[in-house]
């Protein structure tokens, strides 16, 4: 049975009204009394109303057709794929964009099941997408779709039920936004990130190995430095012990010379003097020979005394300032080089006997080096006894040293001086340039501030 639309029904009623009006008008023209006036008027009114209604309905139909064309144009030109399915998930409509995404034409998609294109996705997502529940408000998923040629793409798929006049779901409306390019970029980025993470892990593992090796090397170096420091401490102790032994041996030899050789020489001198006195005038030749022997004995005694002073000057028993003054005087007397000494004694303690002997030998070695190498005409020696340190300064106006001369293997004098200074944990600085003389400064801790290694 044919279903009449509201528009068709209204137009049919209007046409019938117009026909009736025309018949009434013909009857009225033929016989004016055959048709009552009111019926004629009513017929004309109905005819006019029918005409107005038909015109209005025509205008509404034209507006509806225009809206449908605009809607169709919107659907056909949309950037999203529009897809409608019936209750069995078969295609009832597909716009050109959807057909383009699937690699087909809209006509070829009609009747195709959804599984042909979205079947690779989880069933739970598809079931949620095509739910027939009228209360379902829709859902959105990132799904893959398979084109007609078998290639795969990605789309954001939004689905919601299409409701009929009775409020029941009659199918599903799907909107697909193609994101294949974005997904490809995301996959490429994910691959880059995975590669980067692998490289980071490898680099981290490499750094951890390097750090472990570095820690081992640091530990080995610390052990080596500790062993070196221990060896250096033992060397300083040994050097200090050797200096003590050497000084004690000098004392012993000097004492032995004084007690034995010196006394024997004095006894011999007394005997020879008695022989010289008894020779008198009667044996002039013998007296002259005995006199020569006495002169030789005196020279020998002076030599023995000089040797004893060189081995262990008796002035050392008077303290460092007195011993340094005697040493400077002897150096000036023997070398002919003008030598001066300045002593600044503060409130600090004087060096002990061991330090006094070592410092005396340091000054002595410096003066000998100046005599051998400096070609100087003037030497200044300074002693500054402070609260914590003793400072020794020796300045000459000699030929000086070139850079690196102090580190040469043949510089045994300076090396010995530095070793003596190091024994007490002191410091030594050399300032020299060719033709500009040399300044040697040493700073040695006093007894109360000696290093623990010498305890």
TrEMBL record:
Q: Which domain of life is it from?
A: Bacteria
**Record's InterPro entries?**
HATPase_C_sf (IPR036890), HATPase_dom (IPR003594), His_kinase_dom (IPR005467), PAC (IPR001610), PAS (IPR000014), PAS-assoc_C (IPR000700), PAS-like_dom_sf (IPR035965), PAS_4 (IPR013656)
Q: Which reaction does it catalyse?
A: ATP + protein L-histidine = ADP + protein N-phospho-L-histidine
Q: Which residues form the Histidine kinase domain?
A: 256-448
Which of the seven top EC classes does this enzyme belong to? transferase
* TM ranges: 42-61
GO CC entries:
cytoplasm; membrane
Protein localization: Cytoplasm
Parts forming coiled coils = 202-248
For this protein, the Enzyme Commission number is: 2.7.13.3
In this chain the PAS domain maps to 67-111
Listed GO molecular functions?
4 iron, 4 sulfur cluster binding; metal ion binding; phosphorelay sensor kinase activity; protein dimerization activity
Q: Which UniProt keywords apply?
A: 4Fe-4S, Coiled coil, Cytoplasm, Iron, Iron-sulfur, Kinase, Membrane, Metal-binding, Transferase, Transmembrane, Transmembrane helix, Two-component regulatory system
Q: What cofactors are annotated for this protein?
A: [4Fe-4S] cluster
Q: Which residues form the PAC domain?
A: 139-191
Write down a Pfam family by its short name: PAS_4
PANTHER family in the record: NITRATE/NITRITE SENSOR PROTEIN NARX-RELATED, OXYGEN SENSOR HISTIDINE KINASE NREB
Its function?
Answer: Member of the two-component regulatory system NreB/NreC involved in the control of dissimilatory nitrate/nitrite reduction in response to oxygen. NreB functions as a direct oxygen sensor histidine kinase which is autophosphorylated, in the absence of oxygen, probably at the conserved histidine residue, and transfers its phosphate group probably to a conserved aspartate residue of NreC. NreB/NreC activates the expression of the nitrate (narGHJI) and nitrite (nir) reductase operons, as well as the putative nitrate transporter gene narT.
This protein is called what?
Answer: Oxygen sensor histidine kinase NreB
- Originating species: Massilia atriviolacea
Q: What is the lineage of its organism?
A: Bacteria, Pseudomonadati, Pseudomonadota, Betaproteobacteria, Burkholderiales
